[in-house]
Design brief:
8 strands, alpha/beta, 416 residues, 17 helices, Rossmann fold, 4-stranded parallel β-sheet, single chain
Amino acid sequence: MPETESYYVRFTEDMKKEYTILTPNMLTLHFRLMIQVLRNHGYRMELLETDGPEIVETGLKYVHNDTCYPAILVIGQFISALQSGRYDPHKVALIYFQTGGGCRASNYINLLRKALKKAGLEFVPVISMSLSALEDHPGFKLSAGVFMELLHAVLYGDLLMSLHNQCKPYELNPGQTDALADDLTRRLAERIRTDHRYFSHNEAIYKELMDAFGALPRKKDKKLLVGIVGEIYIKYSPLGNNHLEQLLVDEGAEVVTPGLFDFLTFGIYVKLVDTRLYGINRSRYPVLSIAYRVLLNRQRQLIEAVRADGRFRAPTPFTRILELSHEVIDEGVKMGEGWLLPAEMLELNDSGVHNVICAQPFGCLPNHIVGKGMMKPIKEKHPEINLVAIDYDPGATRVNQENRIRLMLSNASRES
């Protein structure tokens, strides 16, 4: 039996009644909404929003420094919370989101359990949440209906993030965009809690969000558009990328970040590709095909609503992103972010965002191949695109990262 099995603690049905499940942060707006969905179904959830160098220091204390940076951060955030005195460690569980693919991230849950044992906390249950059903936890079972609610929460989160990014660089009253995004997220979460028919009102909600952001007083000048792609955690998490979005705004740029919904759709699509290429998952193919069509339909509704409103830039359909990927990479490439990462670079360039930062953990092999490794063929086909890869790691200096970003922005400004 593997060593980790000796301290694999299942989350039981009895635990569901009184345990608080701590959730690591990646996308604050999205995760606040998703947590409320899970609260509606009886789970006591809390989002960890801690930040600062002590998170890295705690992670390095319990995890080898060669471990992928997102694991160091998430494990550090978990153990820091458990050691803070804010929680009864005997009434707390941890949840870890996994893709179940070939990336090292699929092994992080065992690293977390080893770290908990080292910290004397091996009795704390760790829940693996993934579409691949990597583990069995009797007290944490999500129906297809709950997954659909979570997907709708992701759509709302994507729209909130996009509207926020399109307004913040132009705000006349500093801080007003952040405050509005926080307020709308809180109000959305409250409505999700009180109205169980909430997810049938998508178009009305989209309009309310666009009206709220559209009413913000904004400048009319044009900013330099800068896209962010990369490994999913480092791309989105301010803790992971040293508050990259804020840095870009402070430097006079408008940030364009692809939504989380595309990554979830990618996760379903590559399973369909596996069946076509290798003959696996044949029994699940019909269900996966239906799920894929449902995701495309939900995304189409959002895109049509934004286009009809006309005030904001709409997301690109997943099918268009897939089409663009065929220029440089095969759709059978799925490790890490797979073909989606270079496809997002191409999509940003196609939509007029010619300056793109690829944020990735140092030593992340899949993302160095499909990220940094794909930059040369992309530039050969599209010489107008300005690509730069930024590595994030406990040993990487923030000053060096920021200087490379400022140099990219300086070059982009001269060329525009």
